[in-house]
Predict the 3D structure of the following.
Amino acid sequence: MEPIKQSLFQGRKIEAIKLYRNGAGAGLKEAKEAVDKLEAELRAASPEKFTAPTGGKGCLGVMVTLGAVVLLIALWAASLVFGH
């Protein structure tokens, strides 16, 4: 159980789920639910041990990708309008 806790403290939830699945022989859904419950308990009992921020992961990547797609569409539309 300690490696699962350490993974959660370090913000590596997917790793914690994999460790739980391997150790308990559980399915993905069962493992995720168990790890989610454990994480909630750990955050309530020892919030200072968490080194990674909660939530928000990947938001910057999504925004950059969305901006790039919008830019490409605008450039494509401009090339159609101006014929370049």
Observations:
- The helical segments are 2-9, 13-24, 28-45, 59-82.
- The chain has a mean pLDDT of 88.
